[in-house]
Amino acid sequence: MPATRLTRPLLLLSLALSIEAAAGLPARGAGGDRALGAYLAGECVACHLPSGRQVGGIPAIVGWPETSFIAVMQAYAARQRDHALMQAVAAKFTADELAALAAYFGSLKPP
Ligand code: HEC
Question: What is the mean pLDDT of residues 70-77?
Answer without folding.
Answer: 97
